[in-house]
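Example 3.
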Amino acid sequence: MSFVQIRHISSQINRKTVSIVGSGPSGFYTAYHLLKKSPIPLNVTIWEKLPVPFGLSRYGVAPDHPEVKNCEETFTTCAEEFSSPTNQKHKFSFVGGITIGKEILLKELLDNQDAVILSYGCTGDRKLNIPGELGTKGVFSSREFVNWYNGHPDFAKDKRFTDFDWSKVSKVGIIGNGNVALDITRVLISNQIDEIWENTDISSLALNLLRRAPVKDVKLIARRDFVHSKFTNKELRELWELEKYGIRGRIDPKFFQKEMFDPSKYDRAFNRRVEMCSEYLKPFNERSKKNYKKAPPPSSGYDKFWELDYLKTPLKINKDDFGAINSLSLCNNQLNEDNSLQPLKDVNNIMTYKVDLLITSLGYAGVPMPEFSKLSIGFDKDHIANKQGRVLTSSGEIFPHLYASGWIRKGSQGVIASTMQDAFEVGDRVIQDLVVSGALSLENSIDLSNIKHTTWKDWERINKNELLRGKKEHKTRSKFLTFEELWNGVEGI
Amino acid sequence: MLKIVTRAGHTARISNIAAHLLRTSPSLLTRTTTTTRFLPFSTSSFLNHGHLKKPKPGEELKITFILKDGSQKTYEVCEGETILDIAQGHNLDMEGACGGSCACSTCHVIVDPDYYDALPEPEDDENDMLDLAYGLTETSRLGCQIKMSKDIDGIRVALPQMTRNVNNNDFS
């Protein structure tokens, strides 16, 4: 283990100091933009609470979407270039394993740095707030479930997952209609198709448990209707295309028929979604376009199903004598013309779905840092109060030198590319302010000599070791699954 | 003349700028503008991440980029290079967040209608990403999916003013 002190000894170049909290796509794209665009020399430090970088790219993106993680290559090139002593203009440091607000206070960063950017993402779960949501075996939030199969050290060996009896999971309910809900559907319905998963960086521990589940039916349950589904066409198409494995998608005609949607009233993306669904719902040989006939279902037919289910409100999670989920009570919703939603709770509108596993995928919630109230930093419901990235105090004034980018700035919406654009825009404002502000001092430093942490070099070793382990297991990467393994991974396997 | 596909009514203005640029500067094919980067200390290989081959004499293909500030740049390139490779090799402001694997829309370009039909039709996966592109037009494509060929020698593409990926939910 290396304990490198990062006290920045001032050289001839007077660099302004910038600290970024969080090393996911928003934090790293902000750093990248600053280092690429700033006309004045900068000393940029990214702080990450885990010993390893990349946040949701590493622990959120589905294992079968490795191309989405390619942004990590840009971050790596950026880190290597500016960590190198030969680069005379800017300087970059990564500090992992340190939580801002714990080992080092946000106040300390604010006192020491010329600018601080909060890019720590959305770390909480939105809840259903219904009976049985907490404490029932087999009920997980999407954040927990995704972190678990992606090998996040907080969840990879969590007993709630490892002690759960996966061999009884045949029917699954997923509440929510975003891309995360589709990712989870894909993982669960194709859990036994090894060619999809075995070479990916999915946690082997999770995959082995998931494989035991004889999943037959996955219902994606939404409060609103087909028009309001939030997932994107790419992810939906991936689900339809699983039909070559005998996995069939369904939508009840009362929720979807092509004729319900007048193309002139909708945008291109939605009209393409309507065409996709109406074509895929037809029997294979009756489809009109060749792109919906890429690979036929197996001759044995379909034996697993996923279904888009609409206009329902979950009311109660029911459990068996052992505390495991066995069903979900719901009611129908009425969607009014003004777009308001009305749950219909009379006896004719209440139903029960038998489910063996329930994932709530209602979106990630932004959480304020513990020091916010003391420092009078504003927080609006699920994101930091800000004006174009400049953080506001609780009374609405600009908080000097403090910025926010990514999901914690705007809430948990959008793909990596939108986060990137947001990071660039906030980065431009930081540069704008830094160019005109006087430097705080020449010797801004935070002494890390007595605090255990990882550096970029340490991450390079962990990375190398994970790739090496992966090679032995015929996977792209085999992640270290606990904090202990990660810290030890700096040294060797 | 470019038709603008209006997505939720928010994108027309930005698309118009690029469309206007393509319309109003047809004779500027050979004009190149140089922009200077302010790098007082050292030049950085980090900014130069493309790996472009030099075309053999007589086999050069031309491409013109219309940049966000309205300036134009023309390059001579090899057959087979993608527009994303070319833009990155010349330090133009085009990201390829997914590394050119058609999994994001950060390399969205607006193709001159005169060249659009000469391109092979976009596949579903490209269209799925274009659905999310900001400032989408009827001649929008992803730079990573267009390879230079003799058929499109002289192609002109505009970089949209913004590359932010949006979906309907961003506006709700």
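The interface with chain A takes residues 5, 7-8, 38-42, 44-47, 49, 95, 97-99, 101-106, 123-125, 127-129, 131-132, 134, 136, 162-170 of chain B (CB under 8 Å). The first strand of chain B starts at residue 61 and ends at 66.
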